[in-house]
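Subject: design request, 466 residues
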């Protein structure tokens, strides 16, 4: 009778994946509090993967730079985010809030590959009937798509041996469990072990593998942080559940550019590509709107136009509220301080709400000038001139600072037929016209307000107007 393998007790950090032999209130690796969880693991060293055991060193000069053909999908937006398609042998992780559309996207990608090769779709969250109902709703027809409803990683590996698929999809990694690990499914140890085995199998067979992952309340991927280091690609699906827009954002990509974004619309037949995101984001903007302006942001290599809205109202609170959706709250606070001290826009005693429509989130400082114009428009109850866009960083002394790749932003605004673009004055001293678009350089926020806000004919000047 075989003796059971000995196990040892360790404490694993839920945040960074580091382990310690005893419990501590604070992780000694990442410094987070109350993140150590007890687990048992075999004391024996696990068997190494075949590809790792037989690896030999080679000279750098002998390495071939010829890239293997990528696996392309019917979605140009997905290919863009992946850097031109999925690389064979790569391990990609798609994370997002519940109900955001991860499984819908994975089923579409599986159907794309299933027309020319077999695809193994392993799900531990849904039954085969549920997946079939979604496929019928999406009008998915693929003879090469094979469903496997299981939570056992060994079953997934066995089906890979039998089926020899061209791609594997696991929905989701938190539902898988490895019998070699003694902890419960979804635990840090199980997620780390299952991810490691899938990674080794993908590298050994040159097999592309797609995983879906849950996120925590804070928006981070559930499980150990080491999982994000193990995979080759990390994608986040974002969007407001009540809105039809969905954004697929790349935050890690070993085979392409990071910070790329794909734009989709959720329809009755699943996710469909948005061919012109800029037009879609500003299509519903009202003419002569108070507290609304178009901004030109840069998402990866793509310039995007979006609408920023601001609303100011008298506050009854000792400390007026500042609320931001789609932009960094700290940048909004900075802009408000500059507007009050440098631009003559009184915001004391005013609640301020700033929102980027369409569910788009931007962390670019180039949105500062648009936020400032929208807030000033609402505070003075004066509309932004029709067809005006803005891009620029606001400094603490009230200056408008340069932003990268300005010419690409100007070209995008001209393509969509806007009439005026307010830009930083550095490098531009005079107004120019490019394809019907008037480019107005400004050096300060005061100058930007004078160029953007329409003044009623015969009306008096207001504080800060030029």
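Subject: RE: design request

Done. Sequence follows.
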């Amino acid at each position: 009778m075989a003796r059971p393998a000995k196990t040892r007790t360790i404490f694993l950090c839920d945040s960074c994946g580091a382990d310690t032999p005893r419990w501590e209130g604070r992780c000694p690796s990442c410094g987070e509090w109350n993140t150590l969880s007890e687990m048992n693991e075999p004391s024996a060293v696990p068997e190494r993967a075949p590809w790792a055991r037989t690896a030999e060193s080679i000279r750098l000069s002998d390495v071939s730079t010829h890239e293997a053909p990528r696996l392309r999908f019917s979605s140009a937006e997905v290919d863009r985010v992946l850097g031109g398609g999925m690389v064979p042998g790569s391990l990609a992780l798609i994370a997002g809030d519940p109900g955001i559309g991860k499984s819908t996207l994975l089923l579409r990608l599986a159907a794309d590959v299933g027309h020319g090769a077999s695809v193994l779709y392993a799900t531990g969250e849904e039954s085969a009937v549920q997946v079939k109902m979604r496929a019928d709703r999406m009008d998915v027809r693929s003879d090469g798509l094979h469903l496997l409803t299981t939570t056992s990683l060994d079953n997934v590996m066995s089906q890979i041996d039998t089926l020899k698929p061209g791609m594997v999809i696991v929905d989701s990694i938190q539902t898988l469990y490895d019998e070699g690990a003694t902890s419960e499914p979804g635990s840090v140890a199980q997620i780390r072990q299952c991810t490691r085995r899938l990674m080794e199998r993908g590298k050994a067979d040159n097999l592309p593998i797609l995983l879906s992952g849950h996120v925590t309340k804070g928006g981070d991927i559930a499980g150990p942080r080491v999982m994000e280091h193990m995979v080759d690609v990390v994608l986040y699906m974002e969007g407001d559940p009540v809105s039809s827009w969905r954004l697929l954002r790349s935050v890690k990509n070993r085979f392409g550019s990071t910070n790329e974004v794909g734009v989709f619309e959720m329809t009755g037949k699943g996710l469909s590509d948005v061919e012109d995101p800029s037009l879609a984001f500003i299509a519903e903007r009202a003419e002569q709107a108070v507290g609304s302006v178009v901004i030109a942001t840069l998402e990866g290599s793509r310039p995007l136009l979006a609408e920023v809205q601001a609303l100011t109202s008298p506050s009854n609170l000792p400390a007026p509220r500042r609320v931001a959706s789609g932009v960094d709250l700290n940048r909004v606070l900075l802009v408000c301080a500059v507007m009050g001290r440098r631009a003559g826009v009184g915001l004391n005693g005013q609640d301020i709400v700033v929102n980027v429509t369409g569910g788009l989130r931007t962390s670019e400082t180039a949105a500062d000038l648009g936020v400032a114009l929208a807030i000033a428009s609402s505070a003075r109850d004066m509309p932004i001139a029709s067809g005006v866009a803005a891009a620029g960083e606001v400094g603490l002394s009230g200056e408008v600072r340069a932003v990268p790749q300005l010419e690409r932003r100007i070209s995008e605004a001209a393509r969509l037929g806007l009439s005026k673009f307010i830009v930083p004055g550095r490098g531009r001293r005079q107004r120019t016209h490019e394809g019907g678009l008037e480019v107005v350089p400004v050096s300060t926020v005061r100058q930007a307000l004078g160029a953007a806000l329409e003044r009623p004919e015969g009306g008096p000047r207001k504080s800060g107007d030029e």
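The CA atoms of residues 133 and 321 lie 46 Å apart.
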